[in-house]
Write a structure and sequence with these properties.
- Strand 2 (67-76) and strand 3 form a beta hairpin.
- This protein has one helix spanning 2-19, and strands spanning 50-62, 67-76, 81-85, 99-105, 113-118, 123-125, 136-138.
- It is built from 1 helix and 7 strands.
- The chain has a domain at 50-138.
- It is elongated, with a radius of gyration of 24 Å.
- Strands 1, 2, 3, 4, 5, 6 and 7 form a 7-stranded mixed sheet that branches.
């Protein structure tokens, strides 16, 4: 009798654990300690890291023309990859993190100021050495 009762209880517990919903949510709140939660390492098509040079001010709009973000524009001198970010990595003292940023591939090398439309979203990076910023070297 004890054996049958034990088997019934074990079966009930197993069924409950098997069919109970589990939470798959993740806390995506961001603060300055968190790492880049979107794009990860992207190598330059020209080989190795992107060599980003300052281009001036970047203005990024949604596809419908609504303003999305503006900031410091850097573009790779070996390809057309560009990044617009809150903080300029060449300023002294250097800000401890890039903050908000948008990346995109531009149709050509940008001049002093550049405005474009994108389907990309605004991202956040909490470090200069992780995520997409691990694949970038900033030069003058």
């Amino acid at each position: 009798m004890k054996k049958i009762l034990s088997m019934i209880i074990l079966t009930i517990l197993f069924s409950i654990s098997l069919f109970s919903p589990a939470s798959a949510s993740t806390n995506h709140s961001h603060n300055n300690e968190e790492e880049d939660i979107s794009i990860q390492y992207i190598p330059c098509p020209g080989g190795g890291k992107h060599l980003m040079t300052p281009r001036g001010k970047g203005y990024v709009n949604f596809s419908d023309g609504t303003p999305l973000f503006s900031g410091h524009l850097y573009q790779c001198k070996n390809c057309e990859t560009a990044v617009v970010m809150d903080y300029n990595p060449l300023y002294t003292p250097k800000n401890p993190y890039p903050g908000n940023y948008v990346t995109d591939t531009l149709p050509h090398q940008a001049d002093k100021t550049y405005t474009w439309k994108t389907k990309n979203k605004l991202s956040y990076a909490g470090s200069w050495s992780t995520g997409i910023f691990a694949s970038i070297t900033f030069t003058k």
